[in-house]
Amino acid sequence: MTAPDPAPDPAAGPGPVPFGRRLRAAMDAHGPLCVGIDPHRALLQSWGLTPGLDGLRAFTETCVTAFAGRVAAVKPQSAFYEVHGAAGVAVLEEALAALRAAGTLSILDVKRGDIGTTVEAYAHASLAPDAPGAADAVTMSPYLGYGALRPAIDLAQETGRGVFVLALTSNPEGAQVQHARLPDGRSVAGAVADAAGEDNAPARARGELGSIGLVVGATVGDAVQRLGIDLAASGGPLLAPGLGAQGATADDVRRVFGDALGQVLAASSRDVLRAGPDRAALGARAEQVAAEVDRMIAPGALD
Ligand SMILES: O=c1ccn([C@@H]2O[C@H](COP(=O)(O)O)[C@@H](O)[C@H]2O)c(=O)[nH]1
């Protein structure tokens, strides 16, 4: 079951509707929340499911039907499917197809990164319209150099899809690499944000959200300010994991993102998934978290 790819948009010129524009519309409709599908073994058990393939399939199907049409985006975590081998990856591919058919944006959390020629293959695996594992956007690591991600960034722009580049990740260990200073005084994460800003410049010039986002954890405290990173100027969506299970609150989202709040897409997995296995309870919890984040980022929330 596959839905058509993003249709061409005459207002944007030739080509498919850009991911940034589609995400903005989804956030306006449903609030700025992306729910993660993370089928942890412990969660499967707490839902009364077996930890094998049947449990994985049932868990995923419940999540997709609970969240499709209710949240701005859904983010399956690839690791929890890969661990089951090829049959697990097939479940992931079915979930991506079902989300596409439902018209709900998917962000595949797989954090790919390599030398450019290999990134090209990774890009085709997740961002080419005819790929079995095609998502609306994919997470990528720039720690082999932002420039090495060029094939993925170009393919995403061509196909109306998006890339979320790791900048300041939600785990404390990330600081060792991401806070390091370059010879020009910028932090590594700041240079990643600047590079994304250049790729998003045409979208910004149109007054739109760009399609090249950053991952910035809601748990990073005052790092954005301390490192002098201009997140607003990056021009793309800011995927903010860390809500709930990792300790961040909607109030932290407000403090971390400052004048870039309007670009934030908060992400939460376990905190929402623990409301399962009842579909209605899962959907209601997702809507409740989305409403909390929406209140925090509303104009005037910083006053
Ligand atoms: O900096 C990052 C980047 C990605 N993640 C992923 O998000 C979810 C978080 O799950 P929770 O249950 O909401 O803690 C998980 O898939 C991570 O791999 C992240 O946490 N931090």
UniProtKB/TrEMBL annotation:
Pathway assigned in UniProt: Pyrimidine metabolism; UMP biosynthesis via de novo pathway; UMP from orotate: step 2/2
Record-annotated active site: 111
Catalytic reaction annotation: orotidine 5'-phosphate + H(+) = UMP + CO2
EC primary class: lyase
Molecular function per GO: orotidine-5'-phosphate decarboxylase activity
Family to which the UniProt record says this protein belongs: Belongs to the OMP decarboxylase family. Type 2 subfamily.
Protein's recorded name: Orotidine 5'-phosphate decarboxylase
